[in-house]
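Hello everyone,

My group is preparing for a crystallization screen and wants a predicted model to guide construct design. The compound we'll soak is zinc ion. Before spending weeks at the bench, it would help to have a computed complex in hand. I've included the protein sequence and the ligand's SMILES below. Output in structure-token form would be ideal because that's what our pipeline reads.
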Amino acid sequence: MNAPNHKKDECPKCGYAVDSATELHHEPVKPSAGDFSLCLSCGSLLRFDRELLLGHASADELDELDDAQRSEIRKAQRYILQRGPITK
Ligand SMILES: [Zn+2]
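Reply:
Good plan to model first. Here are the tokens for the complex, ready for your pipeline.
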């Protein structure tokens, strides 16, 4: 578990509590407005708003990223979906 590095929030889809973020290669990073995120429990594609709160993001929004970034996000999302939700 990482130290909290953003406001306590929850996934808008499943309610999973979130208060920390890492970049895809596990380096802790303080998120910025507009950054994408994935819910670690349900795999929902999320995005930080101006207040650094999490909201839904559409798959179309990933078009803003380059191919490598899109591919990494989809790979991580597939992993989360295959693993299943976090139950604790
Ligand atoms: Zn979720």
